[in-house]
Amino acid sequence: xxxxxxxxxxxxxxxxxxxxxxxxxxxxxxxxxxxxxxxxxxxxxxxxxxxxxxxxxxxxxxxxxxxxxxxxxxxxxxxxxxxxxxxxxxxxxxxxxxxxxxxxxxxxxxxxxxxxxxxxxxxxxxxxxxxxxxxxxxxxxxxxxxxxxxxxxxxxxxxxxxxxxxxxxxxxxxxxxxxxxxxxxxxxxxxxxxxxxxxxxxxxxxxxxxxxxxxxxxxxxxxxxxxxxxxxxxxxxxxxxxxxxxxxxxxxxxxxxxxxxxxxxxxxxxxxxxxxxxxxxxxxxxxxxxxxxxxxxxxxxxxxxxxxxxxxxxxxxxxxxxxxxxxxxxxxxxxxxxxxxxxxxxxxxxxxxxxxxxxxxxxxxxxxxxxxxxxxxxxxxxxxxxxxxxxxxxxxxxxxxxxxxxxxxxxxxxxxxxxxxxxxxxxxxxxxxxxxxxxxxxxxxxxxxxxxxxxxxxxxxxxxxxxxxxxxxxxxxxxxxxxxxxxxxxxxxxxxxxxxxxxxxxxxxxxxxxxxxxxx
Length: 520
Fold this sequence. Notes:
Strand 2 (about 30) and strand 3 (about 35-40) form a beta hairpin. The chain folds into 4 domains: about 1-90, no CATH class; about 110-210, no CATH class; about 250-415, Rossmann fold, CATH 3.40.50; about 420-480 and about 485-520, Helicase, Ruva Protein, domain 3. The chain is elongated and about 105 Å long. Strands 2-3-1-4-5 form a 5-stranded antiparallel sheet. A 5-stranded parallel sheet has the order 14-15-16-13-17, sandwiched between helices. A 3-stranded antiparallel sheet has the order 8-9-10, with no helix packed on it. The chain has helices spanning about 15-20, 40-45, 50-60, 75-90, 95-100, 120-125, 145-160, 170-180, 255-265, 270, 275-280, 295-305, 315-320, 325-340, 365-380, 380-385, 420-430, 440-450, 455-475, 475-480, 495-520; strands spanning about 1-10, 30, 35-40, 65-70, 70, 115, 130, 135-140, 140-145, 185, 190-195, 210-215, 285-290, 310-315, 345-350, 385-395, 410-415. It is about 40% helix and about 15% strand. By secondary structure, the protein is an alpha/beta fold.
């Protein structure tokens, strides 16, 4: 293999120095304004640093051309050659060169990773096609298509120019291919199981499309009822109980449009999967809800889980973080493992910004590894099927852009504070079964006192009004003294004054919170 570089006379101040450097090579020639440098593989190996310096200088000069074996090439193609040369040098300096070449996919060359020879490594399972995916069924037996595997490997060798490596040989490639079985039989207790085509969320997988290694179930995973993710490294007890929230869409007010969007993204694939087949699209895997605190983000996640009878895994972002290196990533993996075991499932991340903050040069490197682990797990949802992730935050500006790209949390919905009609609906839901005075006008009260409040604040006003009614109608001090039951009478109702007093309490607490930083 030879590399030809042609560059022309330039007004650059570095032109003369580049020409002087090129004169050190036998294959350099200059005709009029054209300079030609022809390099063999041995020269590239011995003078890699000098050649890279020349290329870096002339890369932006007008009409610079590159050829590999007389075929026009790009800088990317040339960088591929340097990658092989560097890998070749690494192998030569290694104590066990055979082990060096068999790293990654296992074909006897580190650069060949399009298809993985391994069946149980995390690397091959996530980043490449595996050898057992190439084949066809014949009499209920999976026949491995070795010819197709070899054809794709040969194409990869040509594309990545692996054959220029002095350590590479097709014999080694064929020897690795011969170690593969010709057929795979799926048995009840064997090492292999059927692979099914991905079905929409909540639908049963029925179409067999291949085989895959049988999954090994871990003996421990996080309890669905526990939000604590075990400080240090405690074992997680096995719990096969499915948790489906009791919250329904009837419990949510003022968010009709948002609820409609969420149902379209998550519930519609269950009701009408043929629509997605017709349009040749895949359902969204993740939804990111953002907006002020207390506006119903968690309620929406619980309601959709209830609607589709999905296992609900709720976790707050800070609970995932752990002081031990690697434990935060392990916590994330266990959450996804739990969802996979109990699917259909919804994973709900509250305070999402705490585990998905933007990665930059000045950021925390440990946090960057957590974000990377999260991205990997989100990309793996495709094969897990029937798992949907929902996240909420009030600091969307802190979320890493990679999290929001298509295929991850690509459906972003803003949840604002409710409008006047929304406040009325929320207030009506919270007071529906409460002993409220008949002459109390709910709409007038909302218009006068609750406009601009969040759903959580309206809930606070309703609860505080009930306490005001108790304080007004019950002798609480005497009740504590004599410790007797309280008789409920017609006086134990919530009147307008109770609600007004509760609204004033809310506004005063707001004002105190806003001025707290100046008082302490």
